[in-house]
Amino acid sequence: xxxxxxxxxxxxxxxxxxxxxxxxxxxxxxxxxxxxxxxxxxxxxxxxxxxxxxxxxxxxxxxxxxxxxxxxxxxxxxxxxxxxxxxxxxxxxxxxxxxxxxxxxxxxxxxxxxxxxxxxxxxxxxxxxxxxxxxxxxxxxxxxxxxxxxxxxxxxxxxxxxxxxxxxxxxxxxxxxxxxxxxxxxxxxxxxxxxxxxxxxxxxxxxxxxxxxxxxxxxxxxxxxxxxxxxxxxxxxxxxxxxxxxxxxxxxxxxxxxxxxxxxxxxxxxxxxxxxxxxxxxxxxxxxxxxxxxxxxxxxxxxxxxxxxxxxxxxxxxxxxxxxxxxxxxxxxxxxxxxxxxxxxxxxxxxxxxxxxxxxxxxxxxxxxxxxxxxxxxxxxxxxxxxxxxxxxxxxxxxxxxxxxxxxxxxxxxxxxxxxxxx
Length: 423
Hints:
Order of helices and strands: EEEHEEHHHEEEEHEEHHEHHEEEHHEH
Radius of gyration: 26 Å
Pfam families: tRNA-synt_2, tRNA_anti-codon
GO molecular function: aspartate-tRNA(Asn) ligase activity
Subcellular location: Cytoplasm
Structural class: alpha+beta
Binding site for Mg(2+) 2: 346, 349
Largest sheet: 8 strands, mixed
EC number: 6.1.1.23
CATH superfamily of the largest domain: Bira Bifunctional Protein, Domain 2
Number of strands: 16
Strand order of the largest sheet: 6-10-11-16-15-14-13-12
């Protein structure tokens, strides 16, 4: 665009005053451009530039000039300057300088934190990850659904619930669209996905937990077993990473991340095999017999990444929730439930669901659930339910792992945890 007349608007990212010449680096969502104000060429415009403060909103009109000395190899020779919005000084936190504020300060001033190019890149990357994942399912004829965020009861036994008053009746914020996804299999929808929100009232202050979670849920009918579900999860994740690597190339460069797309099939191991690897190679045994825990997942991640596999499945977890199908005679794995671990962190959980009404009722009774509380769900099994399965994938965790963040909260615009309800 050398020699073209343009108008740009954004924030004054940096200001350098060198006496008779002032450089203003203007920033918008696409990047930055340098404007050069010279006193001996336009004294009035030069004086106007002296009034600009860092993070003021400004608009500059001028001519683009090629320059290998300027950021992006071009700069702006201004013909007009307007200060649209003044920024109070001092700023609540630094945007342009390499000064790290603590996470609490940054989240308290999130609107300012998000102005930083490296933070902006995280959410541009997040947008492309979700866009690419939805694109895969749209191309494969899945129906995009929306299920309620207010529910009569929780779908995930054991996890705490957020109660709400619903016209004088007790209700809860949804932990999962699980029950509704299954009902849609009885409706003949066959293949559905949802990009939604789940709520978990777990008092956990860790680098991998939040109370309000972004989830990507999938359910499909007429499957043979959990391998059909894992195929969908594996193929969709590979597609998502491939497309994001292209769409978010600039974001990944800003973050200093080299995104590797796994080309080989994801390894699939049994729960018992996972425990054996931890014991024999790392002399580690998770405290709970029916889980792998955070450290166990991390060590398994190291084990498989050394073999060139950033993603792998662990299948056959014991301690099923009522809606999972129990192991059948001749099953290769202990149960029909699996987890996908990506770069040492559980990213998704799923499996084959129970579609036999009698077996489902037995599991509900064993778990101590009052059938009346989920009568709306059970009704859908009385009139022809096909074999089906699905999974839920944590989008916040996906962003964390792809962007190589040290805390899941870094990839959430306004995170909610036990200590944070604002902003």
